[in-house]
Each structure stands twice: as structure tokens, then as C-alpha cells.
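sorry for the late reply, my laptop died twice this morning and i had to redo everyting from scratch. anyway the thing you sent over, i finally got around to it. pasting the sequence first so we're on the same page, its 191 residues, then the predicted structure underneath. double check i copied it right bc i was rushing
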Amino acid sequence: VSQSMVINETWKSAMSKYNDVHYRNNVAYFGAGRGGLEIVDFSNPAAPVLLSRYECVTDALKVHVKGTVACLIDRQYGLMIFDVSNVRSPKLTYTYLPIRDYYYSDMDVYARGDYAYLSVSGVGLMVFDISNPKSPILVGAFADTEMTATFFVQDNYAYAVKIGYYYHDRQAKSSGRRAKNSRRGDKSEVN
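ok and here's the structure:
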């Protein structure tokens, strides 16, 4: 965050706890616990304005925004994708639950280019083509029950944490090839 942000208590929901924030162009997108997705205008940091809120039933954990698409992680409902072209009225366009009847304690999401990456602790990494946010396509998955939700994306690779590191080639996944597990620090093989 390039400038100091002051959160005005008058708009902060009593039941919200802010788990994550994505900030760009003077607008903050909060993963706000039971408050869900909260979008706040910080054009004047001393007087932020709540633009909209999409409440969640359980707990909004992580949020990442790319263009007019916001990807939100909800503890019980998994990945939720929103059209935020109108920040005053976000529209839920898609949800994805990796495993039914499972309460997720650790998940993360990142959006880059036309892809959203969903990492679920104990499940693995999933890659979605979100070029059409109303109809995302699961284009790849890397299953690993010992993987944590911690990961990052650089170039054509997503790096996920386990005992060692696993490298996931987005281009290989979108073409239907499968990546194999690697050992500590080695890149995965692509068939």
C-alpha cells in the first residue's frame, strides 16, 4: 500500500474482521470475515467511503483483484468470483467448492492475466481460466494432500510450499499435460 490508510470506525461493521486487502487505484477490496467482500473508496484516506458489501455466510479470508474481476476465498464456500466493473454493485458470477462438506482452514487465491490460482491446504493447487468471469474453466490441478496454501506466481510458474518446493507450469496445465511431483527444490517434470 503506497499511502497511509485510515479505516473510519463509522463504516466498519461490528461483525467484520479484516482478513485480507487488495488495494489499487484508491479502492480497497477487503476479505472482511462475515462482512464478505467490502469495497471501500480511499480517495480521501481520512474519510474512506464504503462503496459496497457482499456478505458471506461464513468467513471471507483472501481477496485478489485483476481488472474487473475480484476473486474471494470463503472458508466454507471456496472460490467466489465477482464482476466488480461497478464497484457500487459487485455481482457474484461463479463459485467453486474444491471438496464438498469440508470446512477450509487455509486457502489462498491469486489472479494474473487470464488465470486465477486457488490453493487449498491439504488439497492442492487449482488453475482457472477467468477470461470469461461468468464461466471460468478449471484448466489444471495439482493435487497434494501435504501441500500448504502458501504459494506465489511468477512468469509461467506457481510455487507452492510443502517440505520442498513444487513448480507448476501454467502453460503445460492448460494444454492438458500433467506435472509430476518433484523433490526438494527440483522443477516438476511435464509429460
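The radius of gyration is 17 Å.
thats about all i looked at so far, will dig more tmrw
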